Amino acid sequence: MEPLSSIVGFLENKTILVTGSTGFVAKVFVEKILGIQPKVKKLFLLLRAKDSASASTRLYEEILSKELFVVLKEKWGSSDLSNLISERVTVPVGGDISCEDLGVKEVDLKNEMWNEVDVVVNLAATVNFDERYDVALAINTMGPKHILNFAKKCVNLKAFIHVSTAYVCGEKAGVMAETPFKMGETLNGTSGLDINFEFKVMEEKLKQLKEEEKLSEAAITAAMKDFGNKRARRFGWPNTYRGGDMPLVILRPTIVTSTIKEPFAGWIEGVRTIDSLAMAYGKGRMECFLGDPNSTIDLIPADMVVNSIIVAIAAHANRPGETVYQVGSSNRNPLKYSSIPLWGHIYFTQNPWTDRDGKKVLVRKIKILDTMESFHSYMSLRYILPLKMLEVANIACCHYFDGFYTIAKRKIDVVMRLVELYRPYLFFKPIFDDKNTDKLRAAARNSMDSGDVFHFQFDPKTIDWEDYMMNVHFPGAVKRLFK
User: pLDDT: is 370 or 176 the higher one?
Assistant: First the structure.
């Protein structure tokens, strides 16, 4: 890859369209752009809304009012930042990526975007692994298609960045490779994957469910989730989370965690996989941990992901072709699964969570179950067998314990479903190949503007995992996620 000219300089006077603007990574991206290049021409921020007025409300309530922007407000002054944002830079756009032309109804606004946009950054997706199949297809499959078609109408387009996930990629000799899938190709080699046909299958299933008079909306949702998982397993996908000659970059981060440095350490929003485990454990609701303690968990801080996106924009501007980058840590700075419960025990022992009654929650060392067999045995003896005994007692006592039994059964059913959903990742051992990303890092280091090296650090080798988890991530998660 050729050395870059100034990355910050490249962003000057550029117009960027950002989708999924209320998402975790998107907010960090917007803050970063405004922080390093106030002379960016315009940021069109697509938000799910019926019109620009509704989008404007969401912009201020769900993005600019967040703690994330406090450093920017201190830097520019609250009034100066407000002027910068409201008068010139950020333009809230009401729309929906599941619709043609992104659901943008105002004709003048649409034409303005097509004439002015230089860069498209697609950060819109549903990351719910247990999503309804129709919703997942509309957002994660048809959404990128609509965004790509919209981008093709942008007459000054210099780069298209699609942010996906590293967990949808090909595997070779235990290494998850930086290679795109071909049309119709699947993880397990099954043939016959056709998205148009799949969409028809989904619509027929949904129609069939809606025609059943006794089914509630909740029952239809549950059925569509199960149907999605069934279709996913058929083609080898672990779940339903899924250009022509334009400069196209597919950027695949692994598990995105709290910021390590910018705009400040420890900012996080939305509960991710490891955070849900940390919350359950810190609140005393988790006694065991399922997974291979010797396998590697691939984490990457959000600000490193954003830095890689911005460098990729500058590196691929006006260079037709497709490039895939995997942004993770397992290859250059692997972190063992076993370290997470170990550090979690130390942290929550030293910093116990205080519950609603003002009592400090005492945590015990967590029991690690390293096989599905050991998990099922543990659940059977600890929960399922007692539940069956309660069921018998409930019947004998004329359903006196109905309420207690229903709640207990629901909790066990939720745990078992979550384990099935996350099963492909619990014993996941491959390492993510990041050779392309390493070339991108080298290009940033060789940039003619030395300031870029400071601004765009995304080398996972620089992370001290114990220090990050104990002094950044756990405290950040407790402050911003624990309720």
Answer: 370
